[in-house]
Amino acid sequence: MPELEECSGYNYLKETAYDRATVKTIKRPAIAQAATFKAYPEAAKVELPRIWQLAEARITPLLQKRRSLRRFMMEPIKLEELAFMLWASQGITAKSGDYSFRTAPSAGALYPVETYLSANLVEGLDPGLYHFDVENFSLDRLSSEDSAEAVAAACLDQKFMAQSAVCFLWSAVFRRCMTKYGNRGIRYVLLDAGHICQNLLVAAEATGCGGCPVAAFYDNEMNDLLQLDPGEESVLYAAAVGKKVVSKGAHCSL
Ligand SMILES: Cc1cc2nc3c(=O)[nH]c(=O)nc-3n(C[C@H](O)[C@H](O)[C@H](O)COP(=O)(O)O)c2cc1C
Questions:
Q1: 233: CA distance to ligand 1 center in Å?
Q2: pLDDT above 80: residue 145
Q3: Sheet of strand 128-133, all strands in order from the earlier edge strand to the far edge
Q4: Are the beta carbons of 187 and 195 closer than 8 angstroms?
Q5: Is 158 in the pocket of ligand 1 (CB under 6 A)?
Q6: Which residue in 171, 189, 190 sits closest to 180, CA to CA?
Q7: Which residues pair with 131 in a beta bridge?
Q8: Sign (positive or negative) of CA dihedral 227, 233, 234, 240
Q9: 191 lines ligand 1 (CB under 6 A)
Q10: Distance 70 CA to ligand 1 centre (A)
Q11: Structural domains in the chain?
Q12: Alpha-carbon span 215 to 73, nearest angstrom
């Protein structure tokens, strides 16, 4: 759409898209490293307690255990578990006037992010591509062709994605946010997607699953897979989710 294509925000997304033919030759600007932690050596330190006894702290083990998971059990997840993850990431929790508020915050309550699924191993759900109908809390079947390999291929051939039970694919309908916020809306769309993904990862943890966020993908291949018009809607982010392989942790807990 011409007015969107003239926006610098929209062009930024286009300029930073990955394409299979050029991904290996992309020139990155030479930007010097920064330290991982910022320090104020002169500042007085306030020690923080590490033990909390709040009712809300039920979330503690979920946050503590969450790690990006790239190895999954070849075991289906239940439809009920998938429904919970969809609700946790994008479900409607309150209504007020024209607004339907959701589990994850959204700038201006505009909710520009759409959720698609590539189902692979979900009990009671044929493999294929689906769209999450937030309003009716249901799934629209878009294709019953097995899409797991195609999604992994479009994600820079990250093979673990094809072994997950389900991949969440998030796109943005830019107009929903940019009509109000213009170019700044691009920031908000990306932030919204981050909130949604984190909610999903915590919900996955609560169901004995794990997930890995994925932002490395060939934009045109992902958009083609979902038959999106990239002038209006484009994939921003993804996550592969599946049952955890029970193993001794490679990471130490703090
Ligand atoms: C924006 C974003 C994009 C990411 N993209 C990928 C990806 O394409 N492939 C992958 O294996 N991991 C990806 N990750 C996962 C990170 O590698 C991971 O979060 C990081 O190593 C920290 O580990 P943790 O998530 O286990 O705490 C991504 C994470 C974020 C937040």
A1: 23
A2: yes
A3: 138-143, 128-133, 113-119, 166-173, 233-243, 209-214
A4: no
A5: yes
A6: 189
A7: 116, 140
A8: negative
A9: no
A10: 10
A11: 2-15+65-243 (3.40.109.10)
A12: 23
d(CA 181, CA 83): 32
Which residue's CA lies nearest to atom 20 of ligand 1? 68
Amino acid at 178: M
Q: Determine contact, residues 142/118, Cβ cutoff 8 Å.
A: no
Given a cut of 60, whether residue 183 has pLDDT beyond it is yes
240 CA to centre of ligand 1 in angstroms: 11
* Ligand 1 mutation target, pool 23, 214, 241, most atoms within 8 A of CB: 214
- Give the position of tokens 């994925």: 214
47-57 pLDDT tens trace: 987 877 776 77
Each residue's pLDDT tens digit, 29-52: 898 888 888 899 999 999 987 877
Q: What's the whole-number average pLDDT of the chain?
A: 93
Answer whether 0.85 is exceeded by the pTM. yes
Can you tell me which residue has the tokens 């291929």?
153
